[in-house]
Every structure is written in C-alpha cells, then in structure tokens.
Records
---
Amino acid sequence: MANLTSPKTGPLRGRLTLPGDKSITHRAVMLSALAEGTSEISGYLASQDCQQTIKAFQAMGISISASTIKGRPCLSIEGKGLEGLTEPRDVLDCGNSGTTMRLLTGLLSGQPFFSVLTGDQSLRTRPMRRIVDPLRMRGADIAGRAEGAQAPLAIVGKRLSAIDYLMPIASAQVKSAILLSGLGSAEATLLREPKASRDHTERMFQEFGLNLEKKKEILTFIGGQPFQAKKIAVPGDLSSASFFLVAGTLIEGSDITLENVGVNPTRTGILDILEQMGAKITLNPKPDAGHEPLADLQVCAHPLRGIEIEGDLILRAIDEFPIVCVAAARAEGRTTIRGAKELRFKESDRIETMAEALRGMGVAVETFPDGIQIEGKTNWKGCTCITGGDHRVAMSMAIAGLLASGGNKIDDVACIDTSYPGFFKDLSKLAEA
Ligand code: S3P
C-alpha cells in the first residue's frame, strides 16, 4: 500500500488522451476470445482490472499478446470460436474487478467445463445473487459462499435454457452476465431493465455482427451464432476523464482538452451534472469508434453551485460520484444526491467513504441510506484520506488535495492502478503545461 500527499498545483492546462474505457475493454476481450480468428484491439485499457479479464482468458487457452502501436496500447487476441475455451486448471482470480467476475460468471455458466472465480477482499464482499439468481433460473449450476451471495463462485457449466427476465435493478453487469450466458445457446434470452443501464455489451454484440434486438424496451438475443474476429478501437474512458473535468473546473485559470473520449449517452450523466452545477464544458463530436460515439471535451475553470441529483442521472453517472462529491464540496450551497443506494455496493461503500474523507477536509456532510448531502465551502484543510482501497475515491481525494491547504495524504494510491495506472503522470503533465 503506497501513500502519497497530493501536491498543491497551479492551473491545469493542455491536451490529454485518456486511457481506454474499462467497460469496453472487458467486453472487447471477452467477445474477441469467442470470435473466430484474430481480433486487434487498439487503445485498450492496460489496467489491473482489465488484466484480470485478459489473464482469465489466457488461463482458458486463448493466446493474447500486447504491444504498443503509434503510442497506443494494443492487444492481439486469437479467438477460438464459441466452443474454443478450455477448462482452467486453477481458480480464476478477478482481483478487484466486479465486471470480470459478474460477466465471466454469466459466460462460463454456459461453457461445458468447471470453473471457480474469486477476487480480492473487497470483491469477495460484493453482492453476487443479482447474477446468480437469474442465471440459476435458466439452469446454471453455480455454488458460492452464503448460498451464492458471495465469491468464490464455483460453476459447473452446462447447456442453459431460455430466459425471460425482468431485472429488479438496473445494472449493466447483471444485463451483460445474462446476455453472455446466452452466447453459446440457441435458446432465447429476453431481458427487460427498469431503467437503461450502460449498453456497451449490446453495442459490442452489434460490432461483432451478433443478432441482438431491442423492441419496446425488451432485449432479445438468440445465441449459438458463430462470429468473426474484428478490429476494435476503444474510446477514452469518460469515468477517467471526469477527474480532470472536475479539476479543470475547480482550479482557477485551468483550460484542458481531453481527446477522443467515449460519450455513450448511457454514461454522460457526469456532463449533465457538471453543466447543471454551472461548469463550462464544450463537447466537440468526433467520428464514432465503431458503435460508440466519441468527442473531444474542453473544460475551463468556472464556479459551481449546489444542485439536487436523482433519477436517471444516478445510473448515468454511477461511477463518477466520488468526484461529483468533491465538486459538490466546493460548490456554492448544498448538493443532495438521492436514489443512489447502489453506491454502497461498489469497490467501497462510496457514500460512507466519501463522507468520511470530506469531513476530514472540514466539509459538512450528512448521509442517508440512499445518498448524501454536502454543504459546499472553499477553505478546505488537508487531511489523511482512508480510501478503503477504492481507486475512484483515491483519485477524487488526490484531486481535492490540489485545493486543500497542505494537500491530502492518500492512504493507498496503489489501488489507482485498478483503472488508471498513469493518473499521476497525466496530472503532472497538465500541471506543468
Ligand atoms: C459496469 C457497470 C456498473 C459500473 C461498473 C462497470 C460494467 O456496475 O458501476 O463500474 O462495465 O458493466 P453495475 O452494473 O453494478 O451498475
């Protein structure tokens, strides 16, 4: 566990290309492994979370090699088709990655072999019944701690039956686990979501030419169709960009352009939230990367005001709340976030971790079972921040430290490698420009 005091900085300026999108990288690797032929993925995210997915497929006999082409990290994946995976000889370690564990559980439920998935201390406490229950409904044989509520999960893969499932919660991981469980089977997968969660799996299915339909809010997929390898360009990760969107807004004199960022509408809640708070962000559209929309985002410093955040915005900005809390803590007036109970089940309980961290800087915070209320103020004192090993809390509090007197001491910066290994390098690049 490495700790660090984030240094005070002047304005942030210049251009930055963000690392690749985490959600899209996971999906690109998974589908490439099951495609026929060699897929090339450029701009993939070479972070710990995605590495766990890559290693899992290598352990199932898929050859994956990494290189750098014109400064972009690239993967070459030799897909072996729908029936090409081989039984892993050891437990598959998903590390800190909920996406790896939940999506793989779905995918492996329909593969004809035995597999066991585990993860780090945080992942082993995260809820798994949300995927295990629907997968069992279609005949999946999954055992786990607390009757399948927690990992490790042991899967005896088998032929799965059809499913018509109304999801009780809107979750892209649940939706994707179920869709992936149907990949190898000609039995229908029908899904309805209470609200539209991120749709990267659907777009990646389309990218690989798979026949997925959405009519009247019902997703229908018939699997068992072989598909060919592809060339995929991964957009920059808007979740990673959000740290600089907030830093650029809060630090006087800043002017930053973030290049080629994914702006899938199921993910752009952060842009709407910051705009409502008064931020000055300009979106310049670029040609799409496959089925995913792209844009350059330009941000310059501007004062913020407190707002009320609820409804669809919660789902569309679900991973950005740690940095939204930082923005709120600097805004004029009160910000209230409600309807966000899911934040309690992320890499840490993000409502409590952020509340404690902000209180350490002298900010008045109240928490609710489903949200948080923050009174903005501009004179922050530096604090020691307990991240709970949560990468997004660590980055958010490092950004806050740039404005706190004496800076913030972050107890664990190693966890940042989960999603953004070059975070501090990119921050210094903007600070020095
Ligand atoms: C993700 C879905 C979201 C998100 C997570 C990544 C994905 O989780 O918070 O970081 O890649 O599908 P939920 O499905 O639990 O909302």
Note: The longest helix spans residues 22-34.
---
Amino acid sequence: MADARFDRLPRTVELVRDGDGHAGFAYVDQRLLPARLHIARTGDWRAVVEAIKTLAVRGAPALGAAGAAAMTLWACNEGAVPLQAGGCCEMRPRFFEALGRIADEVADARPTAVNLAWGVRRLERLARVRADEGASPSDIADALFAEVKRMEVEDEAANRALGVHGAALLPSNARVLTHCNAGSLATVFFGTALGVVYTAAARGGIERVYADETRPVGQGARLTAWELSRIGVPCTLICDNMAASLMARSQVDAVVVGADRIAANGDTANKIGTYGVAVLARHHGIPFYVAAPESTIDRSIPTGADIPIEERDPAEVLPAPIPGVEVWNPAFDVTPASLITRIVTERGVFEPGKLVY
Ligand code: MRU
C-alpha cells in the first residue's frame, strides 16, 4: 500500500509552538467520529486532562504523547513565564513543586494505560536532569517541548517497526478480527494492531478485517471502521456477541489487538471484551496476537492481577438509569498470558512469558 493512502489519516495528537514560544496541543476529537473529523486546539494543560478523561483523546500510545504534551503546555505557557522574573535559583523549587503536582494530576487522569504515566514521568525525569545541569525554567520548557516532539517521532517509528514484525505472522489473504481501536487514532500515527494490518495490506495480504463494535463506547464501530474505510481496507463491522459465530464458521485466521498495559509475565490489559475474544480464539484454534510498543510493557508489575482497571461512568452503559438497577462498567479486562500466542513490539515477536530481557 503506497504511503499516500496514509495522508487520509490525520495525525492524532501533535504539540506545536508559535514564534513567541507559546505552546499548543492539536488533537482529533474522537468523540465526534465518524460523523465529523475535527482537529481541536488548546494551549491549556487542563483542557488536555479533560480531553483524556472524556475519551476525546484515547488509546494507550496517544495518551502517552498527550500526557507529556499537557506537562509541556504548563511549562511553556504558565510555569516558565511568570516565575522567570524571580530569578532562577529562587523560582526553581516553586517550578518543580508545581510541575510535580501537574504531573500527578495528568498521570492520574486514567489509570490503566501505563503509557500515560510513562510519558509524564519521562518528562519529569528530564526536567530534573536539566535543572541539575543549571537550566532555567524556560530552558527546561524548551527541553520538554523537544522531548515530546521526539516521542511523537518515536511512536510512529515503533508502530511501523512492529507492523513489519506482526505482518510476517499473518497468512496470505488474512481475515483478521480486532477489538476496540488500536489504530492510528490510538497512537500519534499509524497504529499498533492496525499498524500490523496496514503493513500486511500494503503487501496485498489482507482479505478483510472484522471490527468488533466494542461496547459500551463503540471504539470499533466508530473509530476502527472509520479508519479502515479511509485507508481502503475491506472491513466488516460486527457486534461483540457475533465473534463466536464468525469463528465457528472459520471466517477468522487471526486476532490482532492492542494493549494498555502488559505485565512482566505477559498478562495483558486491553479494552473490556478482549479477554472474551482470547477465550474464543483459543477454543477455535485461532492465533491471538497482541501488538504494542515497549512503552506499554510495565515490568514493575509481575502479573495482570496488579494492573489497575478503570471503572467508568454507568451512563456509558445505561444512559437513562432504571431504578434499582446497578451498572458495572470496567473499561478494561486482563487476558492471561496463557491465551496469547505472541506479543509483537518494535523489537520483534515474543512469547508472552519471555518479555523480560
Ligand atoms: O478506552 P480506550 O479507548 O482508551 O481504550 C483503548 C484500548 O483499549 C486500545 O486497544 C489500547 O489502548 C491499545 S491502542 C494502540
């Protein structure tokens, strides 16, 4: 597939800066898709936190870049400017006290995707290193900006690399089932699970993608279907409860999904419903692949039991409450490593239990 097709996809998140040093964050407001492709812009880190909480920006790798961008907006537009007047040495503790508070608030916006905290802590560490070297807050803000731009480039490069590794696992004319949206919209650009699909499709290797609708928020129905349609990959949308019948009819050659956090033993948290798809795949003898960048692996967590699972507003499941009816709305579930055939990262293809190297 010629790269020109990818011009039809927007960059999902992008940090920008104008001539006077003011930083801005541009993002696809995913709540409006597929009806409307709207690039929202803000210079306020609080608006980025809100966008994360409301799923305007979502998907683990995109959250990493957005969280880091939020901190940078604060540093460039608020932190470095007024504090500069007091002189470097007096204001540095105040700068770091505020930066630490903002880092925590951004990292806590959503708990499951480790990429969010990974992006935030990467910037916090860099700020400390630069401060130890004697940098002023405005120098630190410049360094944070440059680091986020590096992260954006790294994200696309990782997705393209894992796409190549993952595509090699698929048979020719593959029929692939995916859950949620692990596409370009979930990353800075290109996508993880769909990065694998796009790479295989470029070689003519994809017959069709079955996109699970992905209740309750419909990331498959609204986002994956939209992306595949824009790129021109044949797509069939199914309700979540149709996957078993499709597999029973031998219509699925492989399942490829993304991940929000992968524990050291390979247990993987991803959008609610992924676990069920993995059970179905095992029952029908279909390979189940997880595609994710290294930044999604949390080696500090031994097993999936330690992964925090976000619970969201019941209104996502039941918009008009019914008296006496409770709603349980976990946003993610954990697929045990034993159900995962291989984990694909930018470094290669791994058995789930062999991620520690
Ligand atoms: O709640 P969301 O939409 O942020 O959940 C996203 C997912 O579960 C994705 O599959 C995951 O983040 C991988 S994205 C490359």
Note: The CA atoms of residues 80 and 137 lie 5 Å apart.
